[in-house]
Design a protein that fits this description.
The chain is an alpha/beta fold and about 200 residues long. It contains 8 helices and 5 strands. The protein has a 5-stranded parallel sheet. α5 links the parallel β4 and β5. α2 runs antiparallel to α6 and α3 packs across α6. The chain is globular, with a radius of gyration of 20 Å.
Length: about 200
């Protein structure tokens, strides 16, 4: 019937995620689901890409048991990008463009010394001194090259971070704020008599 509207007990329940008004149990449930369904976009630039391939393609490490799907067709399907290898100034605009094509919320793992800070090539005129100068990084995996187990540990650390983040803050563009920190900030603002944005 045209013009019909859903009635939900006097208030509109639609768009709770967009407005950042998620109850804490629902927020925790969504975060758990997101942390165990990460689609990874692999950006291998140099020798660390071999270790990344060993972690994602080898049956020995089996990342799919962690809920990580390693082969999306495009960045528009990915939640996580793993940057591994030496990032040059010539490659930096392409990395930024592909990062911007990823849907929100999106996460970045910087794998290896070259991606983290330039590695042994840090004094070269053409090497970017860390991928964090171009895009925000969530987890750094050190090593030259890091073993596949180190990348798996980085993924587990990222999953723990996703489980504890406040989805409303992420959607509002406030970055990664933990659920408990958001609740404490709201209580502190209420104690001072300031207006409080309801997030639960």
């Amino acid at each position: 019937m045209p013009g019909a509207r859903a009635y939900c007990g006097g208030f509109n329940n639609m768009g709770l995620v967009d407005r950042g008004r998620l109850p804490k149990p629902l927020n925790s449930l969504f975060n758990m689901g997101r942390s165990y369904s990460l689609w990874v976009y692999q950006w291998g630039l140099a020798c660390c890409a071999i270790e990344m391939g060993a972690a994602f393609g080898s049956p020995r490490y089996d990342v799919m048991r962690l809920g990580v799907i390693p082969l999306p067709a495009s960045p528009r399907q990915a939640d996580l990008v793993v940057i591994s290898g030496t990032v040059t100034d010539k490659m930096a605009p392409s990395i930024k463009r592909l990062y911007e094509q990823m849907p929100e919320p999106k996460y970045v793992i910087s794998m290896g010394s070259c991606a983290n800070c330039g590695g042994p090539y840090w004094d070269s005129y053409s090497v970017t001194k860390g991928i964090d100068q171009i895009i925000p990084v969530d987890v750094y995996v050190p090593g030259c090259p890091p073993r596949p187990e180190a990348l798996l540990e980085g993924i587990v650390l990222l999953q723990q971070r996703i489980k504890n983040e406040d989805m409303g803050a992420r959607w509002r563009g406030e970055g990664t704020v933990s659920i408990d920190a958001a609740a404490n900030a709201s209580a502190e603002a209420e104690r001072r008599g300031e207006p409080v944005v309801v997030t639960r």
